[in-house]
Design a protein that fits this description.
Elements lengths: L3 E8 L12 H10 L4 E5 H11 L21 E5 L9 H5 L7 E5 L5 H9 L3 E4 L7 H12 L3 E4 L3 H9 L5 E6 L20 E10 L3 E10 L1
Parallel strand pairs: 1-6, 1-7, 2-3, 2-6, 3-4, 4-5
Antiparallel strand pairs: 7-9, 8-9
Length: about 220
């Protein structure tokens, strides 16, 4: 059995994920309404977040241990086959909004990164040969961690991979009152087929923002 997967993104009126100021408070207010068991996040999204909002202090001894937090908090599931988050994961683990970090890697991931994860007591799992097998990963997360609802917090690459493989159940979009124009980084540019949707919600928030929710009918 697979968990329910919801793509949740903030975007401009013309579909861009970047080059405008995201209302993070509103974005995460909506995310919290879903009460997900896990957030699925790509390594590039994490790196971008660290660059935008600043790095945390250097790694400390306490960062080598699993945190003790509310069991109702979601796991943060990070896909990082290239080990690009090495020496940065403590910045993620320190977040008070996650239970702990789980890392998905492939058979091609360097041993040095596996050693880094092992020494710091991160759960990590090899779920693919060259790249992480998304369908296999979702099934594994359901069985291993009892993850029944996953909310993505990612850029367009991972979102479109999930859509193209027919793994998305719902799409939640927070539309911001801005047009990016020729610098637009379109959320669905990599979708490789027509996807039928059914609207579930159309709500105006704080006057200028619109929250749209669609059920994926055919993907």
């Amino acid at each position: 059995m697979l968990p329910r997967v919801i793509i949740h993104n903030s975007m401009s009126l013309d579909g861009s994920l970047t080059n405008f100021d995201v209302n993070m408070e509103l974005h995460y207010q909506i995310a919290g309404k879903y009460k997900p068991d896990a957030h699925l996040i790509g390594s590039n999204t994490i790196k971008t977040g660290i660059e935008l909002y600043g790095s945390a202090p250097s790694e400390e001894k306490k960062d080598f241990n699993k945190p003790y937090r509310n069991e109702n908090l979601p796991y943060w599931i990070l896909i990082d086959t290239k080990g690009s988050l090495q020496n940065k994961l403590h910045e993620v683990r320190r977040s008070e909004f996650c239970k702990d970090v789980v890392v998905l890697i492939s058979e091609k991931t360097e041993e040095d990164y596996k050693d880094y994860l092992t020494k710091r007591n991160y759960d990590f799992h090899i779920l693919g040969k060259e790249h992480v097998d998304l369908k296999k990963s979702l099934k594994f997360l359901f069985e291993k961690y009892n993850v029944k609802t996953i909310l993505t917090d990612c850029g367009r690459i991972l979102s479109n991979f999930l859509l193209n493989q027919g793994l998305v159940d719902e799409i939640s979009l927070l539309i911001h009152p801005v047009i990016v124009g020729d610098k637009s980084y379109n959320i669905f540019n990599f979708a490789n087929k027509k996807i039928q949707l059914k609207m579930l919600k159309n709500e105006i928030l704080k006057k200028d923002y619109i929250w749209l929710v669609y059920k994926v009918i055919c993907a």
